[in-house]
Amino acid sequence: QVQLVESGGGLVQPGGSLRLTCAASGNIFGIYAMGWYRQAPGKQRELVAIITNRGSTDIADSVKGRFTISRDNPKNTVDLQMNSLKPEDTAVYYCNAYILGTNYWGQGTRVTVSS
Predict the structure, then answer these.
(1) Pseudo-torsion of CA 8, 22, 108, 26, nearest 10°?
(2) For residue 111, is pLDDT > 90?
(3) Is residue 67 a contact partner of residue 59, using CB atoms and an 8 Å limit?
(4) Tens digit of each residue's pLDDT (9 = 90 or more) over 16-63
(5) Going along the chain, which residue ranges are E strands?
(6) Are the C-beta atoms of residues 77 and 24 closer than 8 Å to each other?
(7) Mean pLDDT across the chain
């Protein structure tokens, strides 16, 4: 079994910053990529950013230059630093881990950007 535990969501004003953290535990041998997806109300879940165990990244155009993804392989954690937040970044953010051909998901953490 794989557990992904997210933390760091909350309410922030436009232009503010938040940092999300996800910790993976359990049967995580062979973990390859970790990252973040988000789902806004009435929309499909979309990729925000992912990072492989070698440090290669894929970041959505909508957040490039504002969001940074980082990973600590020995600790099996992945962080998402979100700066210059906009109201359209409001969503539930889900941690994802890709392990031996299977996607695993966290329970989600809500990010609300509003004045």
Answers:
(1) -140
(2) yes
(3) yes
(4) 999 999 999 988 888 889 999 999 999 999 999 999 989 999 999 999
(5) 2-7, 10-12, 18-26, 31-39, 46-52, 57-59, 67-72, 77-82, 91-99, 102-105, 109-113
(6) yes
(7) 95
What's the CA gap between 18 and 79, in Å, rounded?
10
Tokens coding 95: 């941690």
Mean pLDDT on 88-102: 95
CB 73 within 8 A of CB 56: no
- Residue 81 corresponds to which tokens in the numbers above? 């630093």
User: Looking at residue 55, what DSSP letter applies?
Assistant: -
Place of tokens 């600790």: 75
Q: Report which of 71, 64, 60 is spatially closest to residue 20, judged by C-alpha positions.
A: 71
Beta carbons within 8 Å of 110's beta carbon, 6+ residues apart: 9, 10, 91, 92, 93
